[in-house]
Amino acid sequence: MLYHYETKKVNRAVKRNIDRFPERFCFQLTEEELEIMWSQIVTTSKLEDNKYRSKKYLPYVFTEQGIAMLSGILKSEVAVQASIKIMDAFV
C-alpha cells in the first residue's frame, strides 16, 4: 500500500531482484505468521472478505534498508518520489 502496488506485484519485483534483498533487508511471512499478524491487528481482522486478507500472495516484511531498495525498483510515481527523497536525505 505504501507504494501503491498490490502484494503480488511487490512479490514479483522482489523475486526478480532477489540479489538486492538480503535477509537483513526483507523476508517473506509464512502462513502462520500472517495469521498471527491478522489476529493482532484490528483493522485487518475486519477485512474477512477483503482482498488484503489473502494467503495467495504472502507479503514480504521490509526493514528500513529494504524499503529504500524497494523504492528503487518499483516504477510508480510514489516509489520514484520516495527514492528521490531517500537519495536527497543520504547523499
SSE layout and pairing:
Blueprint lengths: L6 H10 L9 E3 L2 H10 L1 H4 L14 E3 L1 H10 L3 H14 L1
Antiparallel strand pairs: 1-2
Molecular structure report:
This protein has one domain. α4 packs across α5. Strands 1-2 form a two-stranded antiparallel sheet. It starts with 6 loop residues before the first helix and ends with a helix. It has 91 residues and is mainly α. It contains five helices and two strands; from the N terminus they run αβααβαα.
Taking Cα atoms only, what radius of gyration do you get, to the nearest Å? 14 Å
- Give the helix/strand class: mainly alpha
Number of domains: 1
Strand content: 5-15%
- The H-and-E topology, N to C, reads as HEHHEHH
Concise structural overview:
The chain is mainly α. Helices cover 53% and strands 7% of the residues.
Descriptive terms for the model:
two-stranded antiparallel ribbon; single chain; 7% strand; mainly alpha; 5 helices; 91 residues
